[in-house]
Amino acid sequence: MPAFVRGDRTPAWAALAALAELPSGPARTFDLREAFATDLGRFERLSLQAPGVFADLSKNLWDDSVRSTLLQLAEQCGVAARRDALLAGAPVNATEGRAVLHTALRAPRGQGPHTQEVHAVLDRLLAFAEGVRDVQRSGIRDVVNIGIGGSDLGPQMAVAALDDHIHPDLRFHFVSNVDGHDLAPVLRRLNPATTLFIVASKTFTTQETLANAEAAKAWFLAQGGTDVARHFVGVTTNLKAAAAFGITTTFGFWDWVGGRYSLWGAIGLPIAIALGADGFRAFLQGAHEMDLHFQQAAPQDNLPLQLGLLDVWYRNFMQFGSRSVAPYHQGLRRLPAYLQQLEMESNGKSVDLEGQPLPYSTSPVVWGEPGTNGQHAYFQMLHQGTDVIPVEFIAVKEPTHTIPGLHRKLLANCLAQSQALMLGKSAAEAALEKPPTASPDVAPDVIARHRTFAGNRPSTTLVLERLDPKTLGALIAMYEHRVFTSAAVWGINAYDQWGVELGKALCNQLLPRLDSGEVSGLDASTAGLLARLR
Ligand code: F6P
User: Fold this and answer.
1) What is the tens place of the pLDDT at every residue in 364-395?
2) Rounded Cα gap, residues 372 and 269, in angstroms
3) What residue ranges in 194-282 does DSSP mark as E strands?
4) Which atom of ligand 1 is nearest to the CA of 208?
5) Rounded to whole angstroms, what are the CA distances from 270 to 133, 197, 204, 248, 274?
6) Is-same-fold flag (7-77+297-423+457-490; 102-280)?
7) Where does ligand 1 bind, in terms of residues with CB under 6 Å?
8) Are 271 and 159 a contacting pair, CB within 8 Å?
9) How far is the CA of 401 from the centre of ligand 1 (A)?
10) Which ligand 1 atom lies nearest to the CA of residue 497?
11) Residue 48 CA to ligand 1 centre (angstroms)
12) Cβ proximity of 259 and 151 under 8 Å
């Protein structure tokens, strides 16, 4: 394992702090409008083409000196050596002593670590998926994925995104929450004879998934379902626990695949059933091409690297606490939720690789909704609120629907939002307008101040030619490597998640108390709430 160098211990970190604070620096007077006016090459210089994804980074609050110092930061932190260690299968998840090899799941046959095991499972998985897709023979019409976190969000996001590519005679359902309001409405619409349940859990110990799987099995039997073995399959690294549940058809994966990085292998079964073998292989191919780009592209052309460094710049030097993701494609409606787990579970850490407390912030809050819906909800705050929140727009050039007129409106909205965030509107410009809804009782200059937009608000725009399996694979792999990059600079382990455990343990202690009403030893708030909820 390469020695780790924490970002704040490098000369580049100090240089970035100085750049941020320069009188003309990004934290003070740097102005995007001026930057574009005085630099005609800004868009060309600050936009990148990676496999499947074009990125305009020019509407961000950085200049050439910030960008080149960020590249020095990456060099001084040894990001390239850490990347190579990751790809080679070194135990980069040090706290669990595990390799992190989701990239091996999408490497072509014969390439990358563990290729034999990976392709043996993949071949079996795709053969099974094709069998289900042969609906006359399989009799399956509904596929229900029962899983949570990484065993839910990735497949759910991808199946929604690729709706135009999925088998027309199959319906897909995703049940994750231990709240029965998730499972019950799905079950209500199912026929046991035509339903396939996929129980997806890396550990096969997750409370929510096991409870929902038990409930689904009980429903299946109560509805006269026969042949549990044919209607329930498992996806897990814990084949023994799946067998104890009564599942005989299982697809395995390995402890070197993190839950939130697992959609490329057996956890991707719903995606494979939805798309078929060719579509799933195209999804893997797109991701693999992004892996090669991340591995081989020069730092200044390397999209995941640049995005990860920009994230560090915003989080640690501009002190921005969140990033909003606005996919202008309804199919990508679950992308923000997927990215929340990918980024916040990976990088929501406060100690470095040696367990030392960090003196700087790590993961931002990642959140968002598809455009244009978000425009009619929270964009007001993005434009005129007191906090600056970088926005990431995702535009898809070619629609797959043929409804006339809509797509151009969608794209115009996407462009307009990033333009409005940057350009803003001065009080003088606002004063020239005569807004029909303005109260005649309020002085025009006061109205003008309410209608002023500061502008100079940053955004990135990602452009996909089309949303197909290959492009989606590339997009998701780009996000994975971006998260890796900021983690490498921050000197944290992006691949453990100890922070989820305390709540699980306390839940197990509280569960019997909800039956018994026993509150001794509890804090007054928890005791009071428990009494109310019984
Ligand atoms: O609680 C967090 C977590 O461990 C995630 O990291 C994981 O994706 C999810 O739970 C589900 O875990 P499993 O696939 O083992 O059921």
Assistant:
1) 999 999 999 999 999 999 999 999 999 999 99
2) 31
3) 195-200, 232-236, 249-252
4) 16
5) 11, 10, 18, 18, 6
6) yes
7) 148-151, 201-203, 206, 209, 259-260, 345, 497, 500
8) yes
9) 35
10) 6
11) 34
12) yes
Q: Identify the pLDDT of residue 23.
A: 80
* Secondary structure (3-state) at 11: helix
Rounded to whole angstroms, how far apart are CA atoms 368 and 453? 21
Task: Rounding to the nearest 10 degrees, give the CA dihedral for residues 241, 243, 249, 255.
Answer: 30
Q: How far apart are CA 449 and CA 452, in angstroms?
A: 5
Q: How far is the CA of 52 from the centre of ligand 1 (A)?
A: 29
Q: What gap in Å lies between CA 198 and CA 109, rounded to an integer? A: 26
Beta strands per DSSP E along 317-443: 322-328, 365-368, 391-396
The rounded distance, in Å, linking the Cα atoms of 452 and 247 is: 62
Tokens representing residue 106 in the block: 């999408």
Separation of 253 CA from ligand 1 center, angstroms?
14
Which atom from ligand 1 is nearest to the alpha carbon of 209? Answer: 16
Strand order in the sheet with 195-200: 171-175, 142-146, 195-200, 232-236, 249-252
Q: What is the CATH number of domain 102-280?
A: 3.40.50.10490
Nearest Cα residue to atom 2 of ligand 1: 500
Q: What is the DSSP string of 137-173?
A: HH---EEEEE--GGGTHHHHHHHHHTGGGS-TT-EEE
| Of 51, 43, 48, residue with least CA distance to 478 | 51
**Chain-wide mean pLDDT for the chain?**
96
The token pair that represents 223 in the structure block: 């509805």
170-195 per-residue burial string, b: 16 or more CB within 10 A, e: under 16: bbbbbbbebeeebbeebbeebebeeb
Class of domain 7-77+297-423+457-490: alpha beta
Structure tokens that stand for 406 in this block: 């809509």
Number of C-beta neighbours around residue 152 at 10 A: 28
Q: Between the CA atoms of 19, 20, 21 and 24, what dihedral angle is there, to the nearest 10 degrees? A: 80
Nearest of 203, 232, 27, 230 to residue 138 by alpha carbon: 230
Q: How far apart are CA 253 and CA 52, in angstroms?
A: 27
Active site positions, annotated: 345, 376, 504
- Please count the CA atoms within 13 angstroms of the CA of 451 that sit on its side-chain side: 20
Name the closest-CA residue to atom 10, ligand 1.
Answer: 149
Percent of the chain at pLDDT > 90 equals 96
**Rounded distance, CA 61 to CA 309, Å?**
13
Spacing, Cα 337 to ligand 1 middle (Å): 15
pTM of the shown model:
0.97
Domain layout of the chain by residue ranges:
7-77+297-423+457-490, 102-280, 501-533
Distances (CA, A) of 425 to 419, 437, 454: 11, 18, 7
The 8-class DSSP code of residue 52 comes to T
Do residues 407 and 476 touch, judged by C-beta distance below 8 A?
no
Q: Among 497, 501, 502, say which to mutate for ligand 1: greatest number of ligand atoms within 8 Å of CB.
A: 497
| pLDDT band, very low/low/confident/very high, at 29 (cuts 50, 70, 90) | confident
Say whether pLDDT at 210 is over 90. yes
